[in-house]
Design brief:
- With 314 residues, this protein is an alpha/beta fold.
- The strands form 4 sheets. A 6-stranded parallel sheet has the order 7-6-5-11-12-13, with helices on both faces. The chain has a 3-stranded antiparallel sheet with strand order 9-8-10. The protein has a two-stranded antiparallel sheet with strand order 1-4.
Length: 314
């Protein structure tokens, strides 16, 4: 079965042509999911027991939950962004320091946005939303910036690293929806065109320097300051109030389930340490090793979207 997830954007005058048409089959979306052993029925039973015994279950998700929606992660063997390309994510300090780097970032983000913003939750996102609706999930913490948990209806949710669907001004702090900024980009760049190659977990794509140079970047409509997506770039730190909020939720929980994260980044790993201090049972669902395998009472190497829907939250 083949699906065309490509999009061609046209400005009102019909001059702008951003062509990111590509044929995506179900198999090519699965390209971002690392290979894993067949589901072990005994392991499924163990996870079922873990969830059943939990009365205040906190779930923390990472990029591995979104690979089945067509978004690559960074670190997975063979299929992660680092394994397939030399592309490195934007650094916070570089973005703040350099107008040319902001121009490059926004040109690439502009091209990648139609596909990135159109991606949909997969069965793992829907399963966790259902657990919340049925009272099984106490709190959900995601390290992802793709808004897929929100699209699936999750409300007891903290987006630890922010969300690509919001944009803020670095000077006055004003926020606008990312979709509104896309319209401003189109108006400022009516004849600009570029073709996207690849997609990163934050919606970034790969363009040449020549393609970027003529791209016009709007400023804040309120104060004229530079705009930035409302996400934590690499090299930045998570808002301390948000960290404290999540730490309190962990301390209130009676168990912790990690879904689709290698826990290599300290901003997420710190909550595993908090759970360990509280002696909470920890289960990890992630294809490949994680930083906390030795702290987990249960480790499963399976695709999130295959396993989570099998678990009965009652």
């Amino acid at each position: 079965t083949r699906m065309n997830l490509g999009l061609t954007l046209k400005a009102p005058k019909g001059l702008l042509m951003v062509n990111i048409s590509r044929q995506y089959s179900r198999r090519s979306i699965g390209f971002f999911v690392p290979s894993s052993p067949p589901l072990d029925p005994e392991k499924v039973k163990e996870l079922q027991r873990f969830v059943t015994l939990s009365k205040r279950l906190l779930v923390m998700t990472g990029a591995g939950i979104s690979t089945e929606s067509g978004i690559p992660d960074y670190r997975s063997e063979k299929v992660g962004l680092y394994a397939r390309t030399k592309q490195k994510p934007i650094q916070h300090g570089d973005f703040l320091r350099s107008a040319p780097i902001r121009q490059q970032y926004w040109a690439r983000n502009f091209v990648g946005w139609p596909r990135f913003s159109s991606l949909q939750p997969n069965p793992a996102h829907w399963a966790l939303s259902n657990w919340e609706r049925l009272g099984k999930l106490y709190w959900l913490v995601t390290q992802n910036v793709d808004a897929l948990h929100t699209k699936a209806g999750s409300q007891r949710l903290t987006e630890l690293h922010g969300c690509m669907h919001r944009v803020l001004c670095l000077d006055c702090g004003a926020q606008i929806p990312r979709g509104v900024l896309q319209e401003r980009f189109e108006a400022l760049n009516p004849t600009w065109s570029a073709e996207a190659h690849g997609l990163a977990p934050d919606g970034d794509v790969f363009l040449t320097e020549e393609q970027v140079q003529s791209f016009q970047v709007p400023s804040c409509a309120q104060c004229g300051g530079p705009l930035k997506p409302d996400v934590v770039f690499f090299g930045d730190t998570v808002n301390p109030d948000r960290v404290d909020f999540v730490r309190r939720r962990v301390k209130e929980a009676d168990s912790l389930l990690v879904v689709g994260s290698s826990l290599q980044v300290y901003s997420g790993y710190r909550f595993i340490l908090t759970a360990r201090e509280k002696q909470l049972p920890i289960a990890i669902l992630n294809i490949g090793p994680t930083r906390s395998d030795d702290l987990a009472c249960l480790k499963l190497d399976s695709p999130c979207g295959e396993l989570l829907p099998l678990i009965d939250p009652h």
